[in-house]
Design brief:
With 92 residues, the protein is α+β, with helices and mostly antiparallel strands. It has one domain (3-88): Alpha-Beta Plaits, CATH 3.30.70. 23% of the residues lie in helices and 20% in strands. The chain is built from four helices and six strands. The strands form three sheets. A two-stranded antiparallel ribbon has the order 1-6. A two-stranded antiparallel ribbon has the order 2-5. β3 (45-47) and β4 (53-55) form a beta hairpin. It is globular and about 40 Å long. It starts with a helix and ends with a strand. Bound molecules: iron/sulfur cluster (SF4). Iron/sulfur cluster (SF4) binds next to α4.
């Protein structure tokens, strides 16, 4: 199986009312390297044509990589999803 196929096996309960990861766009804009755009294993951070980072928390694997690699304090407010929400890993 490819990585994409393996990720597709997981199940997600997306919390539409409360994002568990929130991006501060102002602080994020001051980041020159934007490592989140290539470190997130689920590719949830993407670069728009204008250089802004686009982020969607649906599909988050709750790995914490974005929090670890982000060089800008306060750019990413990170938490786990509320109870009953988030990823359910299957086959590992
Ligand atoms: Fe991506 Fe992991 Fe951050 Fe979720 S916690 S957005 S999967 S890097």
């Amino acid at each position: 199986l490819t990585v994409e196929q393996l990720l597709g096996i997981n199940k997600f309960m997306v919390d539409d009312e409360e994002a568990h990861i929130v991006l501060n766009k102002e602080i994020c804009a001051s980041c020159a390297t934007k490592p989140c755009t290539f470190a997130c294993p689920a590719c949830l951070y993407t670069l728009k044509e204008n250089g802004e980072v686009n982020f969607d928390y649906a599909g988050c694997l709750e790995c914490g990589t974005c929090r670890a690699v982000c060089p800008k304090e306060g750019a990413i407010a990170w938490g786990y999803p509320r109870g009953g929400f988030g990823v359910s890993f299957r086959y590992g």
